[in-house]
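Colleagues,

For the teaching module next term, I've prepared a clean inverse folding example: a structure given as C-alpha cells, and then the sequence designed for it. I'd like students to try predicting residues themselves before seeing the answer, so please don't circulate the second half yet.
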C-alpha cells in the first residue's frame, strides 16, 4: 500500500494549520474559501454531471459513464460538510466523483439550506426530505446508501434516526467520514489528546458550528447528539476517521454504542490523518485508498440487495 512520507504529511498539515482560520472567519469568508478551490479542481472525462431540482433545493448527480445496467436504479445520497454554513455541489464534485467511480454507483449531492440564514432544523428537514424525494422517484430503500462527511455525517445519523422513529424503511447502509456524533457536549477524550495534532479541528471551532446552526433554538436539543440517542435498528455503518483529529473519540464511541445495541458497524482509523483527509485524494494515496474501501462497502451492500431480489 502506497504511503505518503511523514515529511510530506507534516508539510501538508502545516499548510492546513496556517490556513485554517475557521473560528475567526465570517460566514461569507468561509463560503468564499470553499468557492475558490472548487473552481480549480480537476475534471473527470469519464463522468456525467446532471443538475437536479429537489423541490426548492438544488442537487447534482455524478454518474460514471460506464454505469452497469443493474446499478441504474441504485443511488448514493451524499450530505456534504461545511459546518452547516457552507458547502456546494461544486466543492464536493471531486470527492463524490471518486466515490462514484470506486463504487460503480450514482451519487446525488444535495445543497441543503445553510445557517445562519436557515438555522436548525432546516438542514435536517432538507436531508430527510431529499431521501423521501428519492424514494418517490422510484428508488427502493434497500437500493440507497447514505453518506456524509463532518456535519454531513451528523445529518446522515439524524436522518436515519428520524426515518426509524417514523417507521420508514431504512436505506441499505451508511458511510460516515469524520462525523460529528455529539455537537452538544463536545466532551470526547480526543478533543484534548489530539488538540496539538489536528491541523483543522478544535473544540472551539466545533462550538462555533453548534452556535451557527442552532441560533436561538438552544444547545441541548437531543437530535444534535446522535451519540446520546438510542441507536438500535440502524443499518450497517462504515466509519472512517483520522487518528490525528479531535473527532476521533466521536467515531470510537459511536462504534461502541452502536455495537452494544446490535448495529453492524465497522470503523477504520487512518494513521497520521486528519478530518476528511479523503478530500485530498488527488495528492494523498491514503485518501484514495480510503475511498476505495468506501466503494467496496457500497458495492457489498448494494450487491446483497441485488442478490436478495
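(Answer key — instructors only)
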Amino acid at each position: 500500500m502506497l504511503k505518503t512520507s511523514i515529511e510530506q504529511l507534516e508539510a501538508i498539515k502545516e499548510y492546513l494549520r496556517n490556513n485554517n482560520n475557521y473560528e475567526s472567519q465570517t460566514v461569507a469568508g468561509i463560503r468564499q474559501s470553499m468557492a475558490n478551490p472548487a473552481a480549480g479542481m480537476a475534471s473527470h472525462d469519464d463522468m456525467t454531471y446532471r443538475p437536479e431540482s429537489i423541490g426548492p433545493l438544488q442537487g447534482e448527480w455524478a454518474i460514471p459513464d460506464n454505469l452497469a445496467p443493474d446499478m441504474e436504479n441504485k443511488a448514493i445520497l451524499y450530505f456534504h460538510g461545511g459546518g452547516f454554513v457552507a458547502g456546494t455541489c461544486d466543492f464536493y464534485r471531486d470527492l463524490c466523483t471518486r466515490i462514484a467511480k470506486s463504487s460503480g454507483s450514482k451519487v446525488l449531492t444535495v445543497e441543503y439550506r445553510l445557517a445562519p440564514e436557515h438555522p436548525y432544523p432546516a438542514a435536517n428537514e432538507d436531508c430527510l426530505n431529499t431521501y423521501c424525494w428519492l424514494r418517490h422517484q422510484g428508488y427502493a430503500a434497500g437500493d440507497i446508501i447514505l453518506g456524509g462527511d463532518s456535519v454531513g455525517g451528523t445529518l446522515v445519523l439524524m436522518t436515519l434516526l428520524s426515518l426509524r422513529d417514523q417507521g420508514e424503511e431504512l436505506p441499505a447502509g451508511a458511510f460516515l467520514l469524520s462525523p460529528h456524533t455529539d455537537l452538544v457536549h463536545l466532551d470526547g477524550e480526543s478533543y484534548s489528546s489530539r488538540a496539538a495534532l489536528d491541523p483543522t479541528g478544535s473544540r472551539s471551532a466545533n462550538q462555533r458550528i453548534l452556535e451557527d446552526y442552532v441560533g436561538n433554538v438552544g444547545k441541548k436539543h437531543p437530535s444534535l447528539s446522535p451519540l446520546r440517542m438510542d441507536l438500535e435498528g440502524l443499518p450497517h455503518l462504515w466509519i472512517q476517521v483520522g487518528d490525528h483529529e479531535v473527532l476521533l473519540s466521536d467515531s470510537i464511541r459511536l462504534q461502541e454504542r452502536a455495537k452494544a445495541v446490535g448495529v453492524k458497524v465497522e470503523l477504520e482509523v487512518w494513521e497520521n490523518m486528519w478530518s476528511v483527509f479523503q478530500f485530498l485524494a488527488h495528492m494523498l494515496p491514503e485518501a484514495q485508498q480510503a475511498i476505495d474501501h468506501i466503494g467496496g462497502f457500497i458495492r457489498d451492500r448494494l450487491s446483497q440487495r441485488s442478490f436478495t431480489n
